[in-house]
Amino acid sequence: MSVYQATASAPVNIACIKYWGKRDTKLILPTNSSLSVTLHQDHLRSTTTSRADPSFESDRLWLNGKEEDIKAGGRMATCIAEMKRLRKEEVEDKQPNEPKLSSYHVHIASFNNFPTAAGLASSASGFAALVSSLAQLYKLPVSPSTLSLIARQGSGSACRSLYGGFVAWEQGTRADGLDSLAVEVAPQSHWPEMHALICVVSDDKKGTSSTSGMQRTVETSTLLQHRIAHVVPKRMAAISAAIKARDFDAFAQITMADSNQFHAVALDTEPPIFYMNDVSRAIIALIVEYNRVSVEKGHGRKAAYTYDAGPNAVIYTLKENVKEIIELIVRYFPQAVGSFKDVFGLFGGVDV
Ligand code: 2P0
Asked: What residue stretches are annotated with the Diphosphomevalonate decarboxylase-like N-terminal domain (predicted)?
């Protein structure tokens, strides 16, 4: 008897141009395009195994060893149903001899190798790994961009984890979402010197979830409307050009500006949302000063901070500066060794 099973893993991605706001909450269509760097090392990944079998009586899911409900009509159920639809359309309807896996139930087991509560994007790597493992199981002859259309319906930021390197999520204009997908801006090999240092300031679970926070911002923030219409389109073009030219100074300027504006629209929400804390702000001050000195010497900016929906800092820098920045952080935050749970060098591998 044949066993139909596949395992795939997907990494976390960290946005430089932030996704914050949906124009369609069911299809997860964003109010603006976004761009991220996919983190490459083994530290931050989800690994998912899917199995299809005619004896299974329902679709079932285990996360980190614990069974979770698959809510009817929910995001997980939607992703599984969409993948079964693709299997039928792309494989079974075209090759009648292929087994009818789309009619079998699936059992899915997924593990994160990092703490889910650390405020790092576990839903991004999780839904990307889910979709990748089902794509392998179903032997789907489709591109990562096509798979990103389905991962997007699990969690918006997940669509960007279908590619490595530098990835844009194009917001699209269609009501059915078929043009709201991830595209590769440049592979990791284009700029292998790029590193990301993750400073875990706090691993508390965040107060306001991204999903509900961003909808409140859409409903109440006037600054968001300005950002959508006048800021993000220019930044998407400028940061793509900076990446293609490997212009770190421009990349850093845009990345920090966009982090600042994302936290500004959170503050402009009613009631206001605060994700950064005093330590986050002190790290910003340190990076600003570090860059000021570098610019004064004629070297341009050497580091870029960015913050998501939580207080943890991600610092982008080039490999040649990693050691200096870690030393700087440890010098100014002597408690760092204890309170920064981890500082990972990604793309390269630097631990403190
Ligand atoms: C991002 N974030 O671009 C932004 C920056 C957080 C701040 O994507 O509702 O967990 O599942 O689509 O993807 C977090 O949003 O929200 C996020 P849903 P998601 O990475």
From this structure: 10-182
Instruction: Say if ligand 1 is within 6 A of residue 266 CB.
Output: no
Pairing of strands 4-11, 45-53: antiparallel
Structure tokens, 123: 């839903």
∠ CA 123-129-133, nearest 5°, is: 150
Distance between CA 213 and CA 156 in Å, rounded? Answer: 14
Query: What pLDDT score was predicted for residue 201?
Result: 78
Q: For ligand 1, pick from 161, 210, 259, 308 the residue to mutate: most ligand atoms within 8 Å of CB.
A: 210
Index of the ligand 1 atom closest to the CA of residue 17: 3
Ligand 1 mean position, distance from CA 227 (Å): 16
Q: Report whether residue 7 contacts ligand 1, using a CB cutoff of 6 Å.
A: no
- Whether 180 is in the pocket of ligand 1, judged by its Cβ within 6 Å, is no
Q: Which domains does the chain have, with CATH numbers?
A: 4-190 (3.30.230.10), 194-346 (3.30.70.890)
Whether the predicted pLDDT of 346 surpasses 70: no
Kindly tell me the burial class for residue 174, based on how many C-beta atoms sit within 10 Å of its own C-beta (0-12, 13-18, 19 or more).
Answer: exposed
Query: DSSP labels for 107-144?
Result: EEEEEESS-GGGSS-HHHHHHHHHHHHHHHHTT----H
Residue 72 CB burial class (10 angstroms; 0-12, 13-18, ≥19):
exposed
pTM over 0.80, yes/no:
yes
For the stretch 288-298, pLDDT in tens is 999 999 999 99
Q: How confident is the model at residue 208 (pLDDT cuts 50, 70, 90)?
A: confident
Beta carbons within 10 angstroms of residue 238's beta carbon: 17
Q: Which of 327, 259, 239, 258 is nearest to 290 (CA)?
A: 327
Q: 182: closest CA among 164, 163, 200?
A: 163
Please tell me the distance from the alpha carbon of residue 199 to that of residue 352, in angstroms, as a whole number: 11
If you measure from the C-alpha of residue 115 to the centroid of ligand 1, how many angstroms do you get, rounded to a whole number?
17
Question: Ligand 1 in contact with 210 (CB < 6 A)?
Answer: yes
Nearest CA to ligand 1 atom 16: 211
CA distance 29 to 44: 26
* Beta pairing partners, 107: 51, 60
